[in-house]
Amino acid sequence: MRHWSKSSLIILLALLLQFLWGSTPRAINDLFNFFSIIVVYLALRHGEIAGTLSGTVAGLAQDALSLHVFGLAGLTKTGLGFGVGLAFRKLNLQPLGRQLLILFFACWFELLVWTGLAYLIFGLKASVWSGTFWLQPLTTALVAGLLFRLNDR
Amino acid sequence: MALPLKERKALRLFSLLILGHLVLISLQVPRSEDGTLFKQAFLAVLTPTQAAISGMSREISRFCNNYLLWRDIREQNQKLRDEVFFLRQENILLKNVLQRLGEEVQIRERLKNLSSSLIVAAVVGSDAANIYKSIVINRGEKHKIKADMVVLDPQGNLVGRVINPVLAWTSRVQLITDDTSGVGAVAAGKEVSGVLRGDGHGRCYLDYVLVSSPEINIGEEVVTSGFDGIYPAGIPVGRVVAVSREGTLFRKIIIEPFFKLNGLVQVGVLAFDLKNF
Questions:
Q1: Residue A61's domain spans which residues?
Q2: Which of A12, A60, A70, A120 is best to mutate for the B interface (most B CBs within 10 A)?
Q3: Which of A43, A77, A148, B273 could serve as A84's disulfide partner, Cβ 3.0–4.6 Å?
């Protein structure tokens, strides 16, 4: 029960950061997606169920706050949370390098699925994203991985 | 081999949520303008939070900035700012109207309702996926905001239009820099019209301008044409920054919008039907 309320607070914190982050210049803005960061963090910390649920909530929040297709980020972030939680339990991700690599690939895959589905179903072109947008998986993996490590100590 | 109970539970939850998302997405093909009821419910919860947080942060920074200033000076300054805001908007609209209408009596009659029909709103949020797509303003249905109302910056430049769903206290504005937006536009003083579309990076393209149409030069001003039935004619949009040839039929014209997203804290919503103005 305690970790559910903690997780809800973390999601609220991501929401707050995302609101405040909105006023930064585009190149910096695209670099971080706080919703992805907290989904990965919660999946690492509490497993795939927490990852799946937080992925759904954070994804839908992202969808609601943008002009994009409602449910798309919800779908991909649900997958991200579940995938990361499952990978963390099944694989040995204790070494930092291995952990960051897996997280990076998971986030990269999530971004690809998101942009791919947006393009295939709704014709939204990937060219509208800035260059730094594609660095999002790297920053998400780094920030979420480091947060997890810090919290572990 | 049977999976452990916890794993089965997680897998079941995951499948259920994925299915839910797929149903949600499939309901939007083709994309509905109003958004699903679920999205509206989500928005109804999130936008007031967004407005509250952004309002709070704005208030805190305003308090810090004004800490050393006299209170009455600040109030006076605010009043003057509002007045300048209204006067600018009024001036631009008047210029447009004067060009189209001849009789003074007719103009006077229509001006009566102008000031009261301009709604000043504060920008309280940006788009979570791409800041050049949309903004959220702190005025909604309760302030008589409706979809397709035109939104201008304090200088009277075009920012975008209000889109559905319009909530009670907040509403979303689709920016002209959104790649799915469309505005009928014309090069000022020339018979060259096209459709203005955002590039998603803060600039716009003027599409469908034939190669055979009169020459357009860099630095020329682009204004709304009024052909789209949403935006009234004559609102300043931006300036031409590049012209090249795209294929054999059309020109590729890049426009730098006049409105600046960074620092856009206040906008004006035209709350009257311009077709009757």
A1: 2-13+31-152
A2: A70
A3: A43
- Please report the ipTM that was assigned to this predicted complex: 0.73
Query: Considering only CB atoms, which chain A residues are within 8 Å of B123?
Result: none
How far apart CA B174 and CA B159 sit, in angstroms, is 8
pLDDT tens profile A37-84: 999 999 988 888 999 999 999 999 888 888 777 888 999 999 999 999
Query: Under an 8 A CB cutoff, do A128 and B10 touch?
Result: no
The pTM (predicted TM-score) of the whole model is: 0.64
Give tens-digit pLDDT for B60-70.
877 777 776 66
Residues 6+ apart with CB under 8 A from B153: B159, B258, B259, B260, B264, B267, B268
Tell me whether domains B56-178+262-270 and B183-257 share a fold: yes
A-B contacts (CB, under 8 Å): 130
3-state secondary structure of A48: helix
Provide the shortest C-alpha distance from residue A130 to chain B (in Å).
Answer: 7
| Alpha-carbon span B272 to B89, nearest angstrom | 13
Q: Which chain A residues are within 8 Å of B57, Cβ to Cβ? A: 20
User: Pairing mode, if any, of strands B134-137 and B150-152?
Assistant: unpaired
Domain range B183-257, CATH class: mainly beta
Question: What fold characterizes domain B56-178+262-270?
Answer: Thrombin, subunit H (2.40.10)
Closest residue in chain B to residue A82, using alpha carbons only: B14
The answer to whether the Cβ–Cβ distance between B31 and A69 falls below 8 Å is yes
